[in-house]
Amino acid sequence: MTKQNVVVPEINTGKQVATAQKPPVPPSGYTAISRKKLLHNVEVNSGGRINSWVDSMRASSPTHINSTPSLSDDQTSWMVQHPSALDMFEQIIKASKGKQIVMFLDYDGTLSPIVEDPDRAFMSDAMRATVRKLARYFPTAIVSGRCRDKVYSFVRLAELYYAGSHGMDIKGPSKGSKYKKGDEAVLFQPASEFLPMIDEVHKALLEKTKSTPGAIVENNKFCVSVHFRCVDEKKWTELAQQVKSVLKEYPKLRLSQGRKVLEIRPTIKWDKGKALEFLLESLGYSNCTDVFPVYIGDDRTDEDAFKVLRERGQGFGILVSKVPKETNASYSLQEPSEVMVFLRRLVEWKKMTLRRQFRMRRQIEDVFSYLT
Ligand SMILES: [Mg+2]
Questions:
Q1: pTM
Q2: 248 C-alpha to center of ligand 1: Å?
Q3: Which BP terms from GO are recorded (predicted)?
């Protein structure tokens, strides 16, 4: 694995040291269940045991992690391994020197708060204004598990790249982006053959889960989400059984998990990490060494993108989380409000840099005209 240069604080002294970060070791004690193992269990499709499914659903619930008694010690050690991107801002900027920053942003839980009704996961006007400014200074993409049209209806900024359905539905800016390459519109849908199957599964899941109060089935075009954030925990086993009974008829679909959501998607090797690579290529940075991608996300599905950055040894991932989680991200932010502060600081830093460059150019021109 390629080493990734990040800066972490030394404990107690507050002094900062540059170091090649190893893959983070999960702090012991905060969860008794190995996420990797659970994910494997649920991803074997119909072969997975129901208990494993439900354990995995519990592991993805922050309330359970919160209730672990030894959290504060673990939180401290986790924060040393994944320091706040706000505290490390200057060092992050230093690491990006001379490189083009490209921004990748997850939506739910990153730009908008997690809410009970997924149809009402609106972003604030302040966040929208921040993202608009961000896209003025850096190529910016929204990468979400949601259907692309749905996430666009929340964000409503035509100058961004959008990768919906976990990256299986990618579209370039419709207007107003200076980073758009050529006149060609970027449109990429690697799982289009699955569309009829996804529709069928969506209908079957709607029917099957209607007896479980609070279950919400969402058609995300190239994948289906079964949200259980409003389902009583006593009913999780029942819901897992319902989803499993539908899924066993579809060996070409697989199950993965996000925050209080079961995701059903095609078995093709495509995820948010591949979407990130595709977008970098579309922007003309596929083999570039002077690119600095920054990916911010809160979800297990964002780990694929964090992993890609770690393996490329370029840029870094920022996990949005209030609690310790096993992650390939290098830094952390606690919640969407901190994401907004981080993005604003990036914009301010870029504005100042451009102003300084402009002033210097003017001074050089003045000196030159004086001499001639
Ligand atoms: Mg998310």
A1: 0.79
A2: 27
A3: trehalose biosynthetic process
